[in-house]
TrEMBL record:
Pfam family, one: PPDK_N
Signal sequence bounds: none
InterPro entries named in the record: ATP_grasp_subdomain_1, PEP_Utilizing_Enz, PPDK_AMP/ATP-bd
Occurrences of domain Pyruvate phosphate dikinase AMP/ATP-binding (ranges): 475-790
Organism phylogeny: Eukaryota, Metazoa, Ecdysozoa, Arthropoda, Hexapoda
Protein name per the record: Pyruvate phosphate dikinase AMP/ATP-binding domain-containing protein
One Gene Ontology term of the molecular function aspect: kinase activity
Family, similarity comment: Belongs to the PEP-utilizing enzyme family.
């Protein structure tokens, strides 16, 4: 037998193996290489020359393997076991009226610590008219990403001029603010403010360019109030475990960390809401109001452009008030088929998306965005089918990162969701590695005061050079000195100079007051007088403090240090001595001109001038200014001493127009001589408006030559200043050349960039050389508009045909209601009614982050008709609907239109729900007596417990602790109101004998039934007043009616026979008054003069006779009824009427108890106001009622001039808001109307009975 070895002539196995390998290499491998090489070369060439590196086809989507269902089951089990539980601190009280610490922390900007970290917020809103807005701010460690997309109904689109590049450098890295867009929280998880005051480009640019058509660049301002209309849902909670397990099961599980892919998505939360604001184009535009509905999304973690390969996001808002947001992403380091989203139903419930046909592989995979989409998803047990139409003409393209790493296409949408029209917005995001032609924003070393160790040689300096580190500490040198030190830190290449000098620090001021006890005593007395603790004339006290400082010599320690610094200057040097108080010239508070500046000071007079500056801190106008803004009355003061600049011209430069905030306009005002004539407005200066293009090209646009009749110069003696008349020929000329004006504007533009915000700059010119004397923030640009203040507390309106009413609330809360009452009483009433309305409706949800039942519009209290009267409906309009109409409106309102709207939102009430509701109402009726007793104990025991010498913070804490007990009293009144309405429904059902068509006899009998209750407190009050008036009328009616209320009060207490009855009335009803639910109201007991005015009116007119209807017995009432036609009707009414009367009496008694509790809170808030005034945090006690509870809690902890300025603005605008009038029924977003155009049914006419007491009556 021949072997292989014999065949090949080899004798060993090793030789055989070698021959085999040689054969494989020489024959087989060579053939394989020859076959594969052309294919490989073709692939490489295609990859290099043909394939786009940014081609989304490179994205690899995970596929379901053979073990998909096993992995899905195991993933679902692991998610259920290891999913992070809710933190305990997140859980909030049901009746919380302010955000808790967890919510506050969530809303606060995050610290950016790593290179790839980000913290962002995106806000979207649209309406049914075609208006849409998408805003986005993403904070990063060295830049900020900003999106501004505004599309109006006319088809016009507005974006930032820098778009499609979204990278900007922001000087406000601790806030959501960049590129003139700003998000600021008003109240965490409830209200945000959105402002923009800058330049937008009309039209869309898909390529970045440096030059722009200036005609397309417009100055745009918009101010919006964003209001939540749902609870917030954290990102972790918005993932449905089923969808998440499906996504996980498709991925490769190569190690035990596969579950960590879930946590690669950025953290955050979503919340649905509405935006109400005004958009203005140019300085002359009054603006157009937009009311947009959408979603707010907050995210933090790793930047999206790092690992996000693809993503699609769809937002939609339907006409029925439902909102949805759908998301699907493909990550390079995580899930490639992630799907999640939320749906807010028209009833306010928020559900996770349970299923979705969203498939990235099938949607615009190659960036070929479709014109139509069909989306199918389910949430909350309901299936949704959305036909989506993408609007190409309003689309936009944006790039993120630098170099660009993400490409996002934006499109407006028109949708049809389950047969309903809807509007929306979509984003298609792609991983991008193509060319980036945008210039990278240059890094800016922003000028910032730094936290240095201010000790030098172990002690705090009394005097420091403006070039030293200590000059950068605001609490040591004040705001003015800090800005000068920052300007001084710039090199001379900036084309300006800062006069050399030094600063006498606030530590020197403290040493001076410590050395002279009489100064401390004088300041303490001033504080006591300014805060109302002592009743002395503030003006004279201020004058005495000023004199005390001016007549006191500088203490030796400070004087010696000051002389040491003065030795560096020649004896002939003339100085300018300027005050620099701690806290002045900040972004929130200017304080310009409040304290002294002394010019033309010689060396030997510097110490005296320092004392004058310190003394000016206590001048009356300076003290009143700080008091007005709740600042420390003695904040401490530093004094800046600089070499005097003998200016030939000087003035002020605003890097933005100070009135409009237009960033493309620089305003310069100038006069001959020193700048004092401009700052103090003693002469009309020249005004020059300089235009600034997008690439910062400057051009003189407008010139107004001022009269410049007088100017101020350094006196010829070299000491002090003098006013000089300018020659007529000089007045007609500009005091500066065009070149100097443009140079000044260029300096201003550079400083705005370095400070990171617009600047108000004081400057001086000496022989063509520019000196800068100050650079403070412009504080007027962020002022609240009247529209914002009027609608800040409005409740959200989630659809255009929403139904609100002021019918009942307008009687309980007439006119405009103060913010404090809105934020406490109205919110708690809303939460109580929410709880009751949601009790038997599974389609409703309870949320304390927004008001859905009782709220305000333009500070007028309204009730949601659709969420109360129309929330539990039968197929046809029922007796219950009619009774509820009478209870709320006083007449029938519900028609087919309203009824169908309610059915559309809540559906038809089931038979089970109907019987369950009746059962609960019967149980409420049977337990009314027991509940009344426990509730009255709550009323008697209700108090705000706090020590007499408590601080404002301690009293605020006591008020907060008392609110749960206050809620129980509200619940008592709600219980009694429900029982009253239930018994009335029963009585009316019997009275009308189930007749659907009510006759006039029915209305008459209903009025008789409701007015025949005699044992109610509300009926006792007018009766007792008539008795008092009758006694007075028999004594001296002429004197009483003609006297001043205070004189009449003194007479009735000391001389009238009605004194005892009057005192008894005040003892029983002193907690009541007109507008008795308003915290700001002074009750009859607090101000009896208000009651005297009522008595004077009663005495002056003919005394009305008592109403005999109130004395009718049950039998008498039933006997005179006209409408009953059946024999059993009167017998049934004889049984029901006593229960009705008892229920009404209990309701009125519980209402009185609620008013007592309101009075307890009223007294506590008034005491809190006095404490805040004594602590110098509030200028006047009345201002407290123009602040919300949340604002007040902030003020107790931190002094806030912005809050006080808002409250003062509200107070000034209040009379205008008080006069606003509204229709009885309001459809959609409420708007006030003129009094003459109001058409309301007059109660008492045409047989219409007076209104039934409603649930908030």
């Amino acid at each position: 037998m021949t072997t292989i070895a014999d065949y090949y002539g080899v004798n060993t196995l090793v030789q055989y193996a070698e021959l085999t390998m040689n054969w494989l290499v020489d024959e087989v491998m060579l053939d394989a290489v020859m076959l594969i090489a052309p294919i490989a070369i073709w692939i490489v060439i295609r990859h290099i020359l043909v394939e786009d590196k940014d081609d989304p086809r490179r994205v690899i989507y995970s596929k379901a393997g053979w073990n998909y269902y096993v992995k899905k089951f195991w993933a679902r089990y692991c998610l259920a076991k290891h999913w992070v539980k809710e933190p305990v601190e997140k859980k909030k009280e049901i009746y919380a009226i302010t955000a808790n610490a967890y919510e506050t922390r969530l809303e606060s900007p995050r610290k950016i610590r790593k290179e790839l970290d980000m913290d962002g917020m995106a806000i979207f809103g649209c309406d049914s008219k075609g208006n849409s807005m998408k805003l986005n701010i993403v904070r990063k460690i060295r830049s900020t990403e900003v999106w501004v997309y505004l599309s109006l109904a006319d088809g016009s689109v507005y974006q930032l001029p820098g778009h499609p590049d979204t990278n900007f450098v922001s000087g406000q890295w601790k806030q959501f603010e960049a590129a003139d867009l700003k998000f600021s929280v008003i109240e965490p998880m409830r209200k945000w403010r959105i402002t923009f005051n800058g330049t937008l480009r009309k039209g869309v640019a898909n390529e970045w360019r440096l030059e722009h058509d200036e005609a397309a660049l417009l100055h745009v301002r918009f101010n919006f109030i964003w209001t939540a209309c749902s609870d917030y849902v954290e990102t972790r909670d918005s993932w449905d475990k089923r969808l998440l397990s499906e996504a996980l099961a498709r991925e490769s599980w190569r190690d035990g960390d596969w579950l960590d892919m879930v946590h690669l998505e950025p953290e955050g939360y979503d919340q649905f809401g509405v935006m109400d604001g005004v958009v203005r184009f140019g300085s002359q535009d009054d603006g157009s109001r937009l009311y947009l509905r959408g979603v707010r999304q907050r995210r933090w973690g790793e930047m999206n452009e790092i690992n996000l390969l693809r993503g699609v996001r769809v937002h939609g808002v339907a006409v029925d008030g439902s909102f949805f947001t759908l998301n699907t992403t493909c990550r390079r380091d995580g899930l490639t088929r992630a799907k999640w989203g939320l749906v807010r139903t028209a009833t306010g419930m928020v559900h996770r998306i349970k299923s979705s046909n969203f498939d990235l592989e099938q949607i615009a995979h190659h960036k070929n965005l479709p014109s139509q989409l069909k989306l199918m998803f389910s949430a909350g047990g309901k299936n949704y089918i959305a036909s989506v139409q993408l609007e190409e003409r309003s689309g936009a393209l944006l790039y993120s990162g630098h170099p660009w790493r993400q490409q996002t296409f934006l499109r407006k949408l028109q949708l049809n969701v389950n047969g309903m029209q809807a509007s929306g917005f979509t984003e298609f995001a792609y991983w991008y590695r193509g060319a980036c032609n945008a210039e990278k924003p240059p890094p800016i070393a922003f000028l910032r005061a730094k936290k240095w160790d201010c000790t030098e040689d172990g002690h705090v300096p009394l005097v420091c050079d403006l070039r030293g580190k200590a000059a950068l500490i605001e609490t040591l040198v004040g705001g003015k000195a800090v800005s000068l030190a920052l300007l001084k830190s710039l090199n001379d290449a900036r084309q300006f100079s800062v006069p050399s000098g030094f600063c006498v620090t606030s530590e020197a001021y403290a040493r001076q007051t410590q050395m002279y006890p009489q100064l401390q005593l004088a300041v303490e007395l001033l504080k006591e007088v300014a805060t109302g603790q002592k009743d002395l004339d503030l003006k004279s006290v201020c004058r005495k403090v000023v004199d005390a400082f001016e007549n006191t010599k500088l203490c030796q320690e400070v004087k010696a240090t000051l002389d040491t610094f003065l030795e560096h200057y020649s004896e002939d040097t003339i100085f300018a001595v300027r005050s620099s108080a701690v806290g002045e010239d900040s972004a929130d508070l200017s304080s310009a001109g409040q304290n002294s500046t002394i010019l033309g000071v010689r060396s030997e007079k510097v110490a005296e001038s320092v004392m004058k500056c310190w003394a000016s801190l206590f001048s009356e106008h300076s003290v009143l200014y700080r008091k007005q803004y709740g600042q420390e009355l003695d904040p401490g003061m530093a004094v800046v001493v600089q070499v005097m600049v003998p200016a030939t011209a000087a003035g002020v430069l605003f890097t933005r127009h100070p009135f409009t905030g237009n960033p493309r306009q620089i305003l310069i005002t100038a006069n001959y001589g020193l700048g004092e004539s401009v700052v103090s407005a003693v002469a009309e200066p020249d005004s020059v408006l300089i235009s600034r293009s997008w690439n910062n090209h400057l051009k003189i646009e407008e010139v107004q030559i001022g009269s410049k009749k007088d100017s101020i110069f350094v006196s010829k003696s070299g000491e002090g200043t003098e006013s000089i008349n300018i020659a007529e020929e000089q007045r007609r000329k500009l005091c500066l050349s065009g070149d100097l004006l443009l140079k000044l504007a260029q300096i201003g533009e550079g400083l705005e960039r370095l400070f990171g915000s617009p600047r108000d700059i004081e400057w001086a010119v000496v022989e063509e050389e520019i000196y800068l004397l100050q650079a403070r923030p412009i504080t007027t640009l962020d002022a609240w508009t009247d529209h914002e203040l009027e609608h800040e507390f409005d409740m959200p309106v989630v659809m255009d045909n929403d139904i609100l009413s002021i019918a009942n609330t307008g009687e309980v809360f007439p006119g405009a209601t103060k913010p404090l009452t809105q934020s406490v009483l109205i919110r708690l009433l809303d939460l109580e009614i929410q709880e009751q309305c949601n009790k038997h409706n599974k389609n409703r949800t309870f949320c304390n982050l927004y008001q859905s039942v009782v709220g305000t519009t333009s500070n007028h209290v309204v009730i949601s008709v659709i969420n109360t009267v129309l929330s539990n409906l039968e197929k046809e309009i029922s007796m219950t609907n009619k009774v509820m109409d009478l209870a709320v409106f006083g007449h029938l309102v519900t028609d087919e239109r309203l009824h169908s709207t309610g059915l559309q939102r809540f559906g038809c009430m089931s038979t089970f729900t109907k019987f369950h509701t009746i059962y609960d109402m019967l149980m409420d009726t049977m337990s009314a007596g027991r509940v009344e007793k426990s509730g009255q104990r709550e009323v008697r025991n209700y108090k705000v417990s706090c020590a007499k010498n408590a601080t404002a913070d301690e009293l605020m804490g006591a008020i907060q602790k008392s609110l749960p007990h206050f809620v129980e009293i509200i619940r008592l009144h709600g219980h009694m109101s429900r029982v009253s309405i239930f018994t009335q429904i029963a009585a009316m059902s019997v009275l009308t004998e189930n007749d659907a068509d009510w006759r006039m006899d029915h209305y008459t009998d209903i009025s008789l039934l409701l007015s025949s209750c005699s044992n109610v407190e509300s009926a006792e009050i007018p009766s007792q007043l008539r008795e008092i008036a009758a006694v007075i009328a028999e004594e001296d009616s002429d004197f009483f009616t003609s006297a001043e209320p205070s004189i009449a009060l003194n007479w009735i207490l000391k001389e009238s026979d009605a004194a005892s009855k009057f005192k008894a009335f005040l003892d029983a009803h002193g907690h009541r008054s007109i507008r008795e639910f308003e915290f700001h109201t002074l009750t009859w007991g607090m101000k009896p003069e208000n009651l005297i005015k009522t008595l004077q009116a009663l005495v002056k007119g003919p005394l009305p006779a008592p109403d005999n209807a109130f004395t009718l017995s049950v039998d008498e009432t039933c006997r005179i009824l006209k409408s009953p036609t059946k024999n059993g009707t009167r017998r049934a009414l004889r049984f029901l009427l006593p229960h009705c009367r008892t229920a009404v009496a209990r309701r009125e008694k519980s209402k009185s108890g609620l008013i007592c509790a309101v009075h307890v809170l009223r007294t506590a808030y008034r005491r809190l106001a006095q404490l805040l005034v004594r602590e110098g945090r509030l200028p006047e006690a009345e201002l407290l009622f123009y602040m919300s509870h949340h604002e007040m809690s902030r003020l107790v902890r931190h002094r806030d001039p912005v809050l006080l300025a808002k409250a003062a603005r509200r107070k000034r605008l209040w009379q205008r808001w008080e006069g606003l009038q509204f229709e009885e029924i309001l459809f959609g977003v409420p708007t006030p109307v003129q009094v003459s155009s109001i058409s309301r049914l007059k109660r008492g006419q045409g047989g219409i009975p007076p209104p039934l007491p409603a649930i908030i009556n």
